[in-house]
Amino acid sequence: MDRPIRVVVAKPGLDGHDRGAKVVARALRDAGMEVIYTGLRQTPEQIVETAIQEDADVVAMSILSGAHNHLFPKVVKLLNEKGADDILIVGGGVIPEDDIPGLIEAGIAAIFTPGTPTSVTIDFIKNNLKRN
Amino acid sequence: MDIKAGLLNGDKRACARLISLIENEDAQAVELLKELYSMTGNARVIGITGPPGAGKSTVTDKLAKLLRKRNKKVGIIAVDPTSPFTGGAILGDRVRMSDLNTDPGVFIRSMGTRGALGGLSKAANAAVKVLDIFGMDYIFIETVGVGQSEVDIVKLADTVVMVMVPGLGDDIQAIKAGIMEIGDVFAVNKSDRDGAERTATEIEVMLDFNRGAAYRPPVVNIIAKDNNNIDKLMEAIDDHYEYMQNSGNYKIRKRNSLKTEIIDIFKYNVVKSIEQKSENTNIIDQLVELALDKSIDPYTAALRLLKELRSTES
Ligand SMILES: Nc1nc2c(ncn2[C@@H]2O[C@H](COP(=O)(O)OP(=O)(O)OP(=O)(O)O)[C@@H](O)[C@H]2O)c(=O)[nH]1
Ligand SMILES: [Mg+2]
Predict the structure, then answer these.
(1) Centroid of ligand 1 to alpha carbon of B50 (angstroms)
(2) How far is the CA of B225 from the centre of ligand 1 (A)?
(3) Overall fold of domain A6-128
């Protein structure tokens, strides 16, 4: 594939830090991807609309506030409702180990907890795209 | 996905997919645009340009909201530079337009410059057509006003808004060369800051050099982040459009931009077919060798290349 991978990097929820999301955004850019950065406090509806209008291959979300069990699956559900089930969805942030199986079950392809090297995230995205 | 049916039925996914096909230079996109070209021409296209961080996205967001109150549908194409080293990009203009994300009458698309041979203005031009066919009444194109390729893009617009800010100082001089000229309306944003009046005056002084012209671009002080004077800015944009219509300059501008577009597509196709051809025959390599040992000059080599292409085309 010679076109760049398009990734929406989003911060759902109410927490006010996007340092982590920005680090990921820069790493993905440096890996040759087009990163659509959405800024803080996005609702699932906003994230889904952005992903559709940007024709994203990937939605990467990060949450520190603890609302992941609600917000991540909501994004998956809304994307599926819109027929956009060919978008790879990954999550990151402060997420307890115990919550991860449930999130995977809900359709998040992978969860990257703090300390995961960005190269792991990049490789995962490259190897798991749902479109070519 | 049936892109054509989706596009004509207001399906944002179809619209988005078609823009991707354009960016990826997919032949299917060209076929669709050929088929639907006669449906274009209903949207008003507004270019928003100016130095980095001047508030272009904030201005676009506020203008779009004003137009939404008037029940107009709004398309936005926001262009950010692609890294020439990695091919990646961070497209961050949506951060200032978050409230518009879920508005059914708004479609926002971020584009990286991707850096192919004049490719961007070709892609942006095509994306404007897509949004036009999609039924948008107004289409904004945001680009950073720094280089020629950006200038080429906003030239597609019916009206170009140059967003300036206080304290540019000598930068005004720098921006002036070749870029200030394309402004149809000047917005001095961040007029909550010191020096806004002075910046407006400096722009006026610059415009004085062109005093004899039939149209003088207005200079509007705005505070985009507070939605201050955005209605006045819109009025200035509308006035420019009306002037263009009444003076006949609108037709002239359309004609010029079509001419540029056709020549761009032509150039692109020529370069493309040279690339494809030389994949098969090494024709360029052969010509290079001949020019290297001086049995041919580069001028003749280029002509021979053109002839070679023609012979395979007919
Ligand atoms: N003080 C002040 N700040 C403003 C105003 N309008 C926008 N800003 C701020 O200026 C910064 C840049 O705004 P953007 O709208 O992103 O500017 P831009 O020109 O689109 O930036 P790039 O696309 O990165 O070149 C943001 O922090 C805005 O909040 C204004 O009227 N006054
Ligand atoms: Mg911007």
Answers:
(1) 11
(2) 7
(3) Rossmann fold (3.40.50)
